[in-house]
Amino acid sequence: MLLIGPIGPQLSETCPVPADFVRAHTRLAPVPFVPEVRIYQADEPIALWEHTEADGGTEQPPPFWAFAWAGGQALARYVLDHSDLVAGRSVLDLATGSGLVAIAAVRAGAGPVTANDIDPLSLAAARLNADANRVRLRCVAGDLLDTDDRYEVILAGDVFYSRAMAARVLPFLRRAAGPGSLVLVGDPGRAYLPGTGLTARASYDVPVAEELESVPVRHTTVWQVSE
After folding, report:
1. 5/7 Cα distance (integer angstroms)
2. How far apart are CA 219 and CA 13, in angstroms?
3. Which residues does 73 contact at the CB level (< 8 Å), separation at least 6?
4. Which of 185, 196, 221, 224 has its CB surrounded by the most CB atoms within 10 Å?
């Protein structure tokens, strides 16, 4: 997941490195719906958020990077099961969070694969998770939603969770969905999922952390975005 913000894009082949914090507050484990991928995951969201703020000394964004969200799990599953959609193509994983979807894209044969988020902890987690899965990601820190960089495939899991986020991310995705570009989103029915311009490609019942979602399973759809 991505938090919108004023931070400008900064390219780095190696992600920012608050890696010790990520390791200290998570454990490496298989993703429930994508067990061939392991990521560093937290057991308790509120406690981790409190640790994040205590360590940073200021108000911090929620630790979206520490959990396998339903939309990301569905999107990763779909990419791995339909590798022909991404193999040999450039991919942007927007709002990468843990890097799960980006890792799945690399495992499916995509390249180069860019993982983007504005949270340095997210990019640190993505790098650690990439290393754990023996894949290479290109990490870009910053808010890319006003840019027009072209990728052959754009993937975005769970990005319609707030009105403000949806208002910014949807125009970006629709601009990107031009000739020759594939834009896919994974979403478990978040409140601000748009009602038009989406075509369902697959649906899954995805196991999730009940502490986060209030249910153990979320019915989740992979949508293709049109212009």
Report:
1. 6
2. 35
3. 31, 32, 33, 34, 100, 157, 186, 204, 206, 207, 208, 220
4. 185
**pLDDT tens digits, residue range 140-192?**
999 999 998 899 999 999 999 999 999 999 999 999 998 889 999 999 999 99
Tell me the pTM: 0.88
Tell me the C-alpha to C-alpha distance, in Å, between residue 56 and each of 12, 18, 147: 22, 11, 29
Kindly state the helix (H) or strand (E) to which residue 50 belongs, with its residue range: helix 45-56
Tokens 């990019």 belong to which residue? 123
Count Cα atoms within 13 angstroms, Cβ side, for 151.
25
> What is the number of residues in the chain?
227
Query: Where would I find the beta strands (DSSP E) of 74-181?
Result: 91-94, 113-117, 138-141, 153-157
Written out in words, the top-level CATH class of the domain with range 15-225 is alpha beta
